[in-house]
Amino acid sequence: MTQAIPVERKNRIRSIDTLRGIALLGILLLNIIAFSGPLASYYNPSAAGSIEGINLLVAMFVDVSSEGAFRAIFSMLFGAGVLIFFAKPEAASGVVRSLYYRRTWLLIGFGLFNAYLLLWVGDILYAYGVTGLLLYFFKDLTAKKLALSSLCLFLFLGLIHTSSYLFTRSLYNAFTDVSALPIEIEKSDDQNQILRDWESYMEQQLALPGQIQMETELRRRGYIDNFKFTAQINIFFQTVNFLINTFWDAAAMMLMGMAFMKWKIFDASRDLGFYVKFMIYGFGVGLSVNCWEAITYVQGGFKPFWVATLRPTYDLGRLGMAIGYIGAVMTACKLEILPRLLHSLACVGQMALTNYLAQSIICNIIFLGFGFGMFGKMNRVEIYAIVVAIWIFQIIFSVFWLKLFLYGPAEWLWRSLTYKQAQPLKLRPD
């Protein structure tokens, strides 16, 4: 037999769906910041105004517990999914390869749709699709070689982050030195150049006060104005930023996910002690690093050279947290803790593409000008109340939908286009 068929629901790995559902919901904890306010506030919670009290505590809690961690898990599971897709013994390898590439190109299309038409500047589907085109060449490597390849990429990422950190810190220190000079002292050409360089850097980050005000006003306008604004940012993110950061980030996590899949970590088949140690060691490293980063950031007055992706220890902290969450979820699955909740989260994960795109639609309606226009009007506590509401809605919707249908609507479309024929959608009673 040479014809490949989609994975049936009964053959899905429930622990992976559960973990994917948690990661999908967790991603919104960070994405909501860019949905609801100026992009600069994603990196600097004080960018759009002073932040203190409970709002500061909430911002730092999310930074410590979630920054990059759930995205890392999502990326790992994408890598694991590549191996699952190729595990089709009934089909010829050439057929599966063709289907894989068609599927991956379609994912790029979903990413472009989400980025440009759904106006989401933080889209990851495009990056996953482009990176996924290369994963085929790694699928037959041993788990050890995959993990070593991933660690090499992490070291490279560390060099990128450290170099960016050192450059930005040096420029910031030079800027503060020049800015501290008395007004009556005439500045040299070099000193004036430093001021211009710093202003240019802040302009690139969309962090100048005038830019923040302009972005806020623009995002409260109609669809066309928002389309023009997000298109410019998406072009940068999908070209320059993709080449210098996003690609290496996604590839490192995907390769690690492929290694974890081959080590049978994601299917909850290892012994309980393994997952408990996984959780303890992961959270031990992740929380230690992230707490130190957060304290340094706050005590330093949110200095711009200490934003998340510029921290030299960024990947160490988020990888630790990701491993901790993986261990915790696998432990819960093995012990069948709160089985109804685990089932509900698995439903969210089974409809991850639908729910991911739906988050863009829901947040646009809430925050942008052609919706309720709440952009820049909510503090951190308020936006996380919105997050919880979206979580509840997506959990209930996913459970209800999968009682009636085999796939989420976006998943159905993706499968149908991949296999070039309409897939069955309605769930048939047993």
Task: Write out key terms for the chains shown.
17 helices; mainly alpha
In total, the number of strands is 0
Poorly predicted runs = none
User: What proportion of the residues is helical, as a percent range?
Assistant: over 70%
Number of domains: 1
Shape, principal axes of CA atoms:
globular
Q: Tell me the structural class.
A: mainly alpha
Q: What value does the Rg take, in angstroms? A: 22 Å
- Tell me the major beta sheet: none
- N-to-C SSE string, H for helix and E for strand: HHHHHHHHHHHHHHHHH
What fraction of residues sit in β-strands?
under 5%
Distance between the termini: 27 Å
The number of helical segments is 17
Rounded mean pLDDT is: 93
Structural description of this entry:
The longest helix has 37 residues, at 143-179. Helix 3 (53-66) crosses helix 12, helix 5 runs antiparallel to helix 6 (125-135) and helix 7 packs antiparallel against helix 11. The protein has one domain. With 430 residues, the chain is mainly α. The two termini are 27 Å apart. The mean pLDDT is 93. It has 17 helices and no strands.
Blueprint (SSEs and pairs):
Blueprint: H1 14-36, H2 40-43, H3 53-66, H4 69-86, H5 93-117, H6 125-135, H7 143-179, H8 189-204, H9 209-219, H10 223-237, H11 240-262, H12 272-299, H13 314-335, H14 339-350, H15 352-367, H16 380-404, H17 409-419
Helix pairs in contact: 1-4, 1-14, 1-15, 1-16, 3-12, 4-11, 4-13, 5-6, 5-17, 6-11, 7-8, 7-11, 12-13, 14-16
